[in-house]
What does this fold into?
Amino acid sequence: MKECPIILCAVMAAALTLATRAPAQSLVVTTITYGYAQVAPLDPTMGPAGIAVDPAENLYVADPINSVVNKYSPTGVPVMTVGKAGVRGWADGLLGFAYFDTPTGIALDAAGNLYVADQFNSTIRKVSPSGVMSTLAGTPNVYGHQDGTGSAALFCQPTALAIDASGNLYVADGANGNLNLPNPPGICIRKVTPAGVVTTLSTLDGIVAAGVGEFNLMGIAVDGQGNLYVSVGPHNDSLASVASLFPPPTGNSIFKVSPSGAATLYAGQPEVLGSADGPAVQALFNNPGALAFDPAGNLYVADNLNTTIRVISPEGIVTTVAGAPGVVGLVDGTGSEAQLRSPQGIAVDAYGDVFFNDGRATRRGIPSANTQGPVRFANMSARGTVSPLSPLIGGFVIDGTVAQTVLARGVGPALAQFAVSNPLPGAQLDIYDRSGSLVASSAAGINWTNCTNAGALAGAFPLYSAVAFTGAPPLPAGPGDAALVITLKPGPYTAVVSSPTGGTGTALVEVYEVP
It folds into this structure.
């Protein structure tokens, strides 16, 4: 990554400590990015399905409607697209030459390889960190239920993926019952090794024994002991990712599958829809979808038609941690104050932050206790003169063991409203970590400089919501000032304000904690 030689010769520095604590029940929800381009002529409210997050907080989002997988930076800036928007097909190869047909579930391994359930191709695809796609298992457009290695194995519209610490994939081969075949294969869970060896782990007879009628598998997750958890949704002729379009009250429960393949009821009441917290088998769900574990063993559930995020503790207690049942919207906030539209894919990072797709938006939920502490940070600011050879530098520290979201601003032209003489005509804001590597820059993506107002650029939503949460004074709309919303791991950082055009003037660097 780009080195920063000026960090060791700071002109001005300030320090701060952001307090962190252990996870809490409710989530503080913010919107990372909104407004995915929609090429395919489907319902405009529908959006991405699976989501994954890597150790650097980059997000990977499967968009089945446009048949692509997008990679975004931690601040929502597009980094890479695999597949071609609006083009459905099958082809392996380099970026720009490889295609999906309705990618849904995704998972990342420790080496950074991305695995994709390519639903209508009935294959499991692998995308290397450099973007080269290959087919790990299955034969394109050949439906069936056959174990084997690589192309010798057959799937029937796989929908969701989970991955364990050894790199084994678990596939919800869950749309089988929808096919108009003479003898459609049954719904099951398949295991795929890193070498592409496919076996059938469970035929899920326990789900039928529990009284569930026709169903599909909507989400899958694996715990540290090798147990699998699957969410049971409606039997529907549409994609699993859009099965929330007026589904019947089928399933609405979550099952636990042992390493031997036995399926038993884990949460919810089969065939009963609703929203009720409490002991897991007494709780009610309404089309539960994607599942993901956090590092503490809590199982997060995207409760799709309840428009909520639920969590099941290791003790088996269900709690609603974001959104309100039946309240539909796209409003950031804490717990029930947040409004969700259609939560689908879900992922949790190593710090316990929750990421989920919500209609056409991708959103983050930070456990509320991680933003609270006996010492609260209000802001860090430093003011000084910027010249071509002398930037303005502010140092700050994220303390503790949990990542923290901050609003950082480099202010130049807006200082004129405060009677500051000779303000910097234009500001660029860069953030570096302790090694001098660039981790964020206003030079690319959504920032205050290229955002004229909140309504004109939907991708700037995180900036405006962050300002509202922090109480930071708003800046005038227009070019010149820079801002970033970014989630940072614990450690020391340096915020650097410079002039992108080589100008000279007074500038201000600020960092606010986003609660």
Notes: The chain has a mean pLDDT of 80. The two ends are 29 Å apart (CA to CA).
